[in-house]
Amino acid sequence: MSQFLFEPVPRAAVPVEGETAAFPVRRILCVGRNYAAHRREMGGDDRDPPFFFAKPADAVAPPGAEVAYPPRTQNLHYEVELVVALGAGGADVPVERALELVLGYAVGVDLTRRDLQSAAKDKGQPWDAAKGFDDSAPITAIRRWQGAPPQGRIWLAVNGETRQDATVADMIWNVAEIVAEASKLWRLEPGDLIFTGTPEGVGPISRGDRVEGEVEGVGRIEFQVV
Ligand code: MN
C-alpha cells in the first residue's frame, strides 16, 4: 500500500536502555495466571494451565508518562510483570530455541479494570475492556539481554508500601515455555511484547497514587496515576 487516506497514527514504541533507536511495538500478548499463588487469589483451580490474552500495541505508557485513571471503573488494579521483548519472530518455535527470539526484558504493569473483568467472567464475555484500555501497559525501557532469563525478585509498592513481593523463578511457564506456547497460537514477529503474568498481592490503586516496582536486574518502574 503506497498511500493512505490520512496520516497513520505513529507506531507505539518503547525506549531501549542506552540507545537512541526505540523498540517499535507490534503486538502485546499477556499471560494469565502464571504464578500459583496469584491463580489461587483469583479463585483459579490449581490444575488450570496459564493462558493468553492481548492488549493493543498503543496501550503502552513509556517511562515518564503519566498514567490516566481510566473511565468506567471503580476498581483499577496493578499487576507487576516481567515483560519479554522479541527481536525475532517465528511460528511453532521449539522450547529449546525460544530464547533466540528474545531481544531483552522490561518491567511492566498490567493495569486491569477488575470490576469489568469480574463482570465479563460472570457473563462469559471477552476481557478487552478490562485489560486493553488506554495507558493500560505502563513499561520501563527495554534492557538488552542474552542467555538465561531473569529469575530474581519482583515487587511492587503503592505510595511506598510493598504490595507484591515474589520471585520470577516461581512462574508456572518460564520465559522459553511462554514464547514457545505463544508461537503455537500466533506467528510471532520482531516488536512483539509478552507480559509474563503477575505474582500474588494484586489490589486497587486510586488517582494520585505513586506506583513503583522492580524486577531484579531488569529495571525499575515508577509512575503516578492522574
Ligand atoms: Mn497480568
Overview of the molecule:
The protein has four helices and 17 strands. Strand 16 (210-215) and strand 17 (219-224) form a beta hairpin. With 226 residues, it is α+β, with helices and mostly antiparallel strands. It is globular and about 45 Å long. It has a single domain (13-224), classed as Alpha-Beta Complex (Fumarylacetoacetate hydrolase, domain 2). It has a six-stranded mixed β-sheet, with helices on one face. A four-stranded antiparallel β-sheet has the order 13-12-16-17, with no helix packed on it. Manganese (II) ion is lined by residues 30, 79, 81, 110, 195, 197-198.
Keywords:
226 residues; alpha+beta; six-stranded mixed beta sheet; four-stranded antiparallel beta sheet; 31% strand; globular; binds manganese (II) ion
Kindly summarize this structure in a few lines.
The protein is α+β, with helices and mostly antiparallel strands.
SSE blueprint:
Layout: E1 13-14, E2 23-24, E3 28-32, H1 36-41, E4 51-55, E5 60-61, E6 76-78, E7 80-86, E8 102-109, E9 112-113, H2 114-123, H3 128-131, E10 137-138, E11 143-144, E12 153-158, E13 161-167, H4 175-185, E14 193-195, E15 203-204, E16 210-215, E17 219-224
Parallel strand pairs: 3-14, 5-10
Antiparallel strand pairs: 1-2, 3-4, 6-9, 6-15, 7-8, 7-14, 8-11, 12-13, 12-16, 16-17
Manganese (II) ion is lined by residues 30, 79, 81, 110, 195, 197-198.
